[in-house]
Specification:
This protein is of the alpha/beta class. Helix content is 43%, strand content 25%.
Amino acid sequence: MELSEIRTQLDAIDGQLTDLFVQRMTLVDQVADIKLRNRTHQLYDPVREREILMKVREKAGSEYGSSAHQLFRTVLELSRARQAARLIPATTVAARVAAMCANEQAIFPTEGRIAVSGIEGCHAGAAAERLFPRGDLVFLNGFRAVVQAVQAGLCRYGILPIENSSNGSVRTVYDLLREPDLCIVRSARLLIRHILLGQPQTKIEQIRTIFTHEQAAGQCSRFLAGLKDVDVIPCTSTAHAAQRAADANSPDVAAISGESCAKLYGLSILSDSIQNTENNDTRFLCVTKGAACFAGAERMSLMVSCANSPGALYHMIAKISALGINMVKLESIPIPGTNFAYRFLIDLECNIHQEGVLGLLCELEHSCDQFTLLGNYTEIIG
């Protein structure tokens, strides 16, 4: 048989498969209608699904059984997502999405009262100015203070660093994101250049103490490893570090900070761009109180935990994959007070208005031990 003849047969089979798939999904809609009338929202029947997959494997035989199992598992995931979209049970996430849609605004603001961890000259402040050119920045001591200011209504928005391209995630922020009534509405990626600042005429070999933030120290680990007999003292921000170095007014004290802090605190640049890599980007999240979003959102963040059993994480990811949604981040986070139990931070490229997304969120909430929709937002780069 010629290749063209084989392809003709494959096209015919693909057409039959498509027709059968449409027929199956039509029946799935009918199932959903019956469940609506009977007021039952059960989406997952593990016994029936195991029976279906076992029959599929047996019928496909040893050569194609595994592939057929994978194919039909995807079909079942799509069927559940279809039902979930039609049923939309009265879940917490359904109510949150409804509130986000009700509060959705077309244009992101350029002003407002913005909570920032640090002092004048810190990188979080630069992120706040990038997002809110006419914003009123309120500098606070620590990430929790930022969240508390937003929750209390003292500030409309708060800026939190979430991850760095070379030094990883800011884990202390993760638990704060799960605080009640907090929502991510924007994010910004900024290129961070770290600079060694000190008193004029200071030579690097004179330095015995360097103030900096722990994240900045990690991002400049190679530079620090090349120094001898130097103590690195952590500060709440790189701007705090520059301030402390300026207050010390000593040639043996320096700070790892940003270039803007040189003029701000009367320091000299001793060494420029000391970070490990040139593409040293940090992502900052903008959070607000209540359920909110803005038009054009293309990134969604979730915090979930699933059963510690074989295939549990795979099944969760398969639900996302079945809708063709791109997962751009998956990170495990140890749960405090447990022995090797984890939550997962998941970032998806999707929008709450997108077909099937609400059903997916409802199904994930139904099937996961814990589930939090952190927000649907746009990310600004540069």
